[in-house]
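Build the 3D complex.
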Amino acid sequence: MKKVNDIPKSIITEKLAMLLNAFMPISEIELQELLSYCEYRHFDKGAIITHEGETEQYMNIVLQGLVVKYLKLEHHTPVLQLAVENNIVTSEISFLMRTPSQVFLEALEPTLLLSLRFDKRQQLLNDFPKGEVLSRKIMEAMYVRKDERKNRMKKLTIREQFLYYLNRNPDMLQRVPQKYLASYLNIKPETFSRLKHLVAKKSKRA
Amino acid sequence: MNQFRQFLGNFVRLSDAEFALFEEKAFIKNCSKNEIITRAGEVEQYFYFVLSGVIHHYFLKNKEMVTTELVGKDAIVGSAVSFFTQKPSPYFVQTLQPSVLVGISKTNLEYLYANNRNWQRVGRMLISFFLVKQEQQYIDILRFPIRERLIRFFNQYPELINQVPQTRVASYLKIKPETYTRIKHVLNFKTELINTSSLKE
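Done.
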């Protein structure tokens, strides 16, 4: 894998423009202004980005790498989110309510985040005319994604959920330790091993 | 309407004139028991605030009713996903008791957002509130054993205990009906109330 510092800034800007234009039209000048509120943060593989108990200071977009969000409970660590390129990830309750984070965020690969700090976000909301609407639309999108996932979890069988996710994210079998994937999909590890054949067979045929 | 204004006061202080903007655009909806407000497959055009009553969201899975949301007064309902995306709603929105709602159409809400900065803030704070509630619900399901989930739910919505069929609560909390019957005695105990109502600016 390429090292995270190798991505040229122009590519980042282009990607970000595409991402934000899905929410509302943003001009080149506005984009540069937006970026001036943000910072880039690098994390090594295995680094903890946010600890349980600390107040989340950042809202992040993954530019490169992979971030896992999980709870640390007594007997297991359920995974709430696997965030890849272009995904938004943060400990949102902590970020929005200024309460101690209930979750951990950890880099599963060398990771580059574009991050907006809480105080900068407040400035942005006050000073940047499109800040309010952009912020609302981004949060709406976060909500929709999670609601869709919740519905899938209630609607689909385990097998269907597994196929739904891995057909859309075929590289995740290689990128994510199996226990995390199984936990994210709410599948027992032994069932997961059995289901893996479904995907292997399919990709061979294709 | 005052009840809704008070609820909004948790997020943003609106002037009389600003709230009047809303009152001009909003309407009151009286619903009977078991009335369907939004059907699965329809595109949601409205957002509702619950003045009184009980509402749930559900979809049908092999003819079985699966409840994904269950709220009483001072909640916001409507097929939020469909409202935001303008795609067909994945679920039904239905009353479980006679209910009184304040509604506003997407067009009118967008009008408020476009013409008033404080309403823009309301919009952002409301979605923040939704996000927090959604995430907390999910974390609670992962974190708490079934008994505690039940206690937490009724601590949050004590008025619902006698108003909602047990099967709905069980479906919503992902508790098997037979387990529910076995453990419902725990509701006689009181535990600490969780409060997630104040977002920080």
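The radius of gyration of chain B is 17 Å.
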